[in-house]
């Protein structure tokens, strides 16, 4: 967002009221809704959220301690914007996209500003002089640290002839690289965070995003450009799952928004991403990641802005024709920021003190996800994955309940599964994926159908077993219980800490499912031919259960070997 | 404390609960520290406050010592021009103060080489060093199964009637960090006088050794002091940790009393209530305390936070434990059932978890077998609990031989491993050896999570006979 102490507007006004992040100013004209305001001598950034009579209400993005009525404030005449550029990749920013790496050990109000211009980058022109270009045309490419191709585009609303074009070479971040119809095109650009960046059109999201997590890719797959909510009480492994996706999913760019997160956890994410290698490109995972860290003790309202900042960064990379995933952990903390501010402005509370606009605010955020044809004609997507932290695990609370309605996929984390150390604790009965039908090829769809039916049957029987004991069930149903166990332990469980199994390719997932299904099929045959279920339950199924841990992410053949070993052992029972 | 300006205001517009509204003020900023001189009865008295809101020429001030006896016509208010600051430094060590930091041990006021704002500043996440290495509490079950890690925030979830205060005090009294400089800052909020006396007695030795700062706010002290006490504790601890290179353990009890104080003030201000009438910002407020734990790159010390909270009606979904759970890195849960059996400390090992344990325990940090032993013990306990349920249904005699051993294990776990005296500092090695002895109640075939050579090393001939 650059600096807020500029002299964009000569007008000045006075502060009338300060209550935490809520600041009221006198209206002096030239102040529009969502315009940026600089508050007090320190120039604290704030954003106009209401104008009523001659009073302007501002939400401040920094601690307002010491700000007093009578202090000066300056409307800056432009909305809250962020600077987008190649330096974002691998960087760590606060909720307003100010680099945290430039700050000291403690974050002090108004102490850190501006970035980007200090770096320099290698520019390779892709357009030619005098070429006729329109919005979204690629002018050139920038070689960033990692594997992500950063492209310089003609900005929205601009078209004409390229009247000047820089030659290949190293340029500072603020250099003019091309001029089109009088418009200077620089390496970076600036964009208001609350306005979605334009695209030519939305297209159907029908390409799968592979997350490398079996429970997801198999049962609840997500499309590129879709939306996911991950509700889970504390201790259900939400952050762990999201970090796994950040590490292993096959998107081009990850925007990780730690929104009201734990500081130690952010420190961990940052350290780990820098250390890990991207399995597809061999580069550092950090080089395809933009981290926005607004820990729970950092200023509240910057937390509110951070999810929009994240979406804007994602759209910037999407417009280059890339697939981007935004991970927001946790949207509940963002909603709480909305609630706190609404309560300070005296807005009429709706459910549980949240403002009545909560549902539309959530919907608007998730709607920034899309698969699009960009202005330049490329295909790009933004997938939004939002964690939800329901208080007390109560899934009927407003944030969870509204979010469920607006997303295409839901990965509900179950406390009982987590308690039983079944990770990832994605509940197969409580989750859904509306993308599943669009994405699946017939073989996959059939596999998913089998697994879902098998798990549902095992769940139903588990209730019975609790009442009457396993021995009271008919033999075929005892095999169903066994099948449920094999599927849970042999396929769905996946340890994030495992060296080999933290990430799993589609072919290994398919092989594991097929192995369990084949074993179950054999067991049913055996029971039909008179072998008692009790005998089958004594068989050592460890090879098919452990094979997920013992083979690498692509080793489907090894899985088939273990399957055959167990099948052979079963056949000996005949 | 913070210096006070010269101008005195006398235009008190309103007195309500702990709040004073003062009119005609100019240039007063939000969050400033306030001095209030008032005539109560015959004598003059000095009180203090914080600015909660400034609206044109009105300032809403929250009075730390309460408003009782205040007469609008006999009040003079002056503002500091800055948020509340306290002196920080080693002068706090060995002292006993109230929730505002005023001595109650008969000594002089605490001075320090410098001062710091009690609100603190957020640590830059980029500059954080991930937590590592243990704080050894000398409580076997905590050290062995939910290791407290330097820089971690690990709460104790308790309920009325359980010995959480005893446990917190014991941890405060005997924690160590293997020879490195260590200090404990203990903030008690809403304590009964009996509890306060208990704490002072139990921590006397540590206090005399100059390793302890004790801040005590009793239940009949002003509510707002309760809000200040943990901030004061953390501010003092931050200085000891980051400027003086000590490892500081901050024990805060009882956070439920703290949250209730927050609710009381919020209600007095007429704020819109959220869940169970707690203010909507309870999460952010708790986070602003708990998140002050940590380590910083290039600075030797650490701040570890151990909040204690009682779950009203033993309800873990109550907003205070719930929001705490979302912020902290695990929890130590106390358990009625073990308490009823007379076991101290009555920790529910299966519900307890230290999320950062891997960073604080294991080879090079505690002992090579620590993590394996802990994992195996927890797995065995989980199985034991299932067996117990089964036994309740079908009777003990119907259990298999292995299952019966699991019941024995649960029993030995309680009485041989978990139980310890309140004044006993149990070394980690002893705790782990006891864990081994408990595990060896089981036949070898049930110890799949332990490496074979380790079992061989610990397996006594007697146990081998049983297996045979």
UniProtKB/TrEMBL annotation, chain B:
Domain called ATP synthase A/B type C-terminal: residue spans: 360-457
Domain ATPase F1/V1/A1 complex alpha/beta subunit nucleotide-binding: 138-354
InterPro entries: ATP-synt_VA_C (IPR055190), ATPase_F1/V1/A1_a/bsu_N (IPR004100), ATPase_F1/V1/A1_a/bsu_nucl-bd (IPR000194), P-loop_NTPase (IPR027417), V-ATPase_su_B/beta (IPR022879)
Domain of life: Bacteria
Domain ATPase F1/V1/A1 complex alpha/beta subunit N-terminal residues, every copy: 17-78
HAMAP family: ATP_synth_B_arch (MF_00310)
Biological role stated in the UniProt entry: Produces ATP from ADP in the presence of a proton gradient across the membrane. The V-type beta chain is a regulatory subunit.
Protein family per UniProt: Belongs to the ATPase alpha/beta chains family.
Name used for this protein in its record: V-type ATP synthase beta chain
Organism: Streptantibioticus rubrisoli
């Amino acid at each position: 967002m650059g600096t807020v102490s500029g002299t964009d507007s000569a007008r000045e006004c006075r502060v009338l009221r300060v209550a935490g992040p809520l600041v009221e100013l006198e209206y002096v004209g030239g102040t529009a809704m969502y315009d940026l305001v600089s508050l007090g001598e320190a120039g604290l950034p704030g954003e106009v959220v209401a104008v009523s009579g001659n009073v302007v209400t501002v939400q401040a993005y920094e601690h307002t301690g010491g700000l007093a009525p009578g202090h000066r404030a300056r409307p800056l005449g432009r909305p809250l914007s962020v600077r987008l550029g190649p330096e974002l990749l691998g960087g760590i920013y606060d909720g307003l996209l100010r680099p945290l790496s430039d700050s000291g050990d403690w974050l002090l109000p108004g102490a850190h500003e501006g970035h980007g211009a200090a770096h320099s980058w290698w520019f390779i022109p892709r357009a030619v002089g005098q070429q006729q270009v329109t919005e979204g045309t690629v002018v050139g490419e920038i070689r960033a640290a990692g594997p992500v191709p950063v492209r310089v585009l003609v900005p929205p609303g601009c078209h004409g002839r390229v009247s000047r074009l820089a030659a290949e070479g190293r340029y500072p971040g603020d250099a003019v690289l091309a001029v089109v119809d009088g418009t200077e095109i620089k390496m970076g650009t600036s964009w208001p965070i609350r306005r979605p960046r334009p695209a030519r059109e939305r297209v159907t999201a029908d390409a799968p995003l592979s997350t490398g997590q079996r429970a997801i890719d198999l049962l609840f797959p997500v499309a590129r450009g879709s939306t996911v909510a991950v509700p889970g009480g504390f201790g259900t492994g939400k952050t762990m799952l999201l970090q796994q996706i950040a590490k292993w999913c096959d998107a081009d760019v990850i925007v990780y928004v730690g929104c009201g997160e734990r500081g130690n956890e952010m420190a961990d994410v940052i350290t780990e991403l820098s250390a890990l290698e991207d399995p597809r490109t061999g580069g550092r995972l950090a080089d395809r990641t933009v981290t926005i860290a607004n820990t729970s003790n950092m200023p509240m309202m910057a937390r509110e802005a951070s999810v929009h900042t994240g979406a804007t960064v994602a759209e910037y990379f999407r417009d280059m024709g890339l697939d981007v995933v935004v991970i927001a952990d946790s949207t509940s903390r963002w909603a709480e920021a909305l609630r706190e501010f609404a309560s300070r402005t005296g807005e009429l509370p709706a459910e549980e003190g949240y403002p009545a606009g909560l549902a539309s605010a959530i919907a608007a955020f998730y709607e920034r996800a899309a698969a699009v044809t960009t202005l330049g004609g490329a295909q790009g997507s933004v997938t939004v994955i939002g964690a939800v932290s329901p208080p007390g695990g109560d899934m009927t609370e407003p944030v969870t309940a509204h979010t469920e309605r607006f997303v295409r996929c839901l990965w509900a984390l179950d406390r009982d599964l987590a308690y039983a150390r079944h990770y990832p604790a994605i509940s197969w009965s409580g989750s859904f994926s509306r993308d599943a039908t669009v994405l699946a090829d017939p073989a996959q769809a059939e596999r998913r159908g089998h697994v879902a039916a098998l798990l549902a049957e095992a769940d139903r029987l588990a209730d019975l077993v609790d009442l009457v004991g396993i021995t009271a069930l008919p033999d075929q149903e005892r095999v169903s219980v066994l099948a449920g166990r094999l599927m849970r332990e042999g396929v769905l469980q996946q340890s994030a800490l495992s060296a080999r199994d933290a990430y799993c390719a589609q072919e290994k997932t398919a092989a594991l499912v097929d192995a369990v299904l084949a074993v179950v099929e054999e067991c049913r045959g055996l029971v039909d031919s008179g072998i008692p279920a009790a005998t089958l339950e004594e068989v050592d199924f460890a090879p098919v259960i452990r094979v997920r841990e013992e083979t690498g992410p692509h080793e489907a053949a090894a899985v088939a070997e273990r399957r055959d070993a167990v099948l052979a052992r079963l056949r000996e029972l005949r | 404390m913070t210096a006070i300006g010269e101008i005195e205001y006398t235009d008190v517009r309103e007195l309500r609960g702990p709040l004073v509204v003062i009119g005609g003020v100019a240039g007063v900023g939000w969050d400033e520290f306030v001095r209030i001189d008032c005539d109560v009865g015959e004598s003059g008295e000095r009180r203090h406050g914080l600015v909660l809101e400034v609206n044109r020429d009105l300032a809403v001030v929250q009075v730390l010592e309460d408003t009782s006896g205040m007469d609008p016509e006999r009040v003079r208010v002056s503002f500091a021009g800055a948020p509340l600051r306290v002196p920080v430094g080693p002068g706090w060590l060995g002292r006993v103060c109230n929730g505002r930091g005023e001595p109650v041990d008969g000594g002089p006021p605490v001075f320090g080489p410098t001062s710091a704002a009690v609100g603190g500043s957020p640590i830059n996440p980029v500059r954080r060093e991930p937590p590592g290495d243990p704080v050894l509490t000398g409580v076997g079950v905590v050290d062995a199964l939910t290791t407290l890690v330097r820089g971690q925030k690990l709460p104790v979830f308790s309920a009325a009637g359980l010995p959480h205060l005893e446990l917190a005090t014991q941890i405060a009294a005997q924690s160590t960090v293997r020879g490195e400089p260590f200090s404990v800052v203990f903030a008690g909020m809403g304590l009964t006088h009996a509890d306060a006396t208990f704490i002072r007695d139990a921590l006397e030795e540590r206090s005399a050794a100059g390793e302890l700062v004790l801040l005590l706010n009793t239940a009949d002290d002003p509510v707002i002091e309760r809000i200040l006490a943990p901030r004061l504790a953390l501010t003092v601890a931050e200085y000891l940790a980051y400027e003086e290179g000590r490892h500081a353990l901050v024990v805060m009890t009882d956070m439920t009393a703290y949250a209730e104080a927050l609710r009381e003030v919020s209600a007095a201000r007429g704020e819109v209530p959220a869940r169970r009438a707690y203010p909507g910002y309870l999460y952010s407020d708790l986070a602003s305390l708990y998140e002050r734990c940590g380590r910083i790159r290039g600075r030797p010390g650490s701040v570890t936070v151990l909040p204690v909270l009682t779950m009203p009606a033993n309800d873990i979904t109550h907003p205070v434990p719930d929001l705490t759970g979302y912020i902290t890195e695990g929890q130590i849960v106390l358990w009625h059932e073990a308490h009823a059996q007379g076991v101290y400390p009555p920790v529910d090992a299966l519900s307890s978890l230290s999320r950062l344990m891997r960073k604080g325990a294991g080879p090079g940090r505690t002992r090579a077998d620590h993590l394996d032993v802990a994992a195996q013990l927890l797995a065995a306990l989980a199985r034991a609990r299932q067996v117990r349920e089964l036994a309740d249904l079908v009777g003990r005699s119907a259990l298999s031989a292995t299952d019966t051993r699991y019941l024995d294990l649960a029993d030995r776990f309680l009485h041989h491993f978990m139980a310890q005296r309140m004044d006993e500092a149990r070394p980690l090695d002893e705790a782990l050896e006891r864990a081994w002895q408990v595990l060896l109640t089981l036949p070898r075939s049930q110890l799949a999570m332990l490496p074979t050579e380790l079992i061989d090393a610990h397996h006594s001939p007697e146990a081998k006979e049983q297996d045979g």
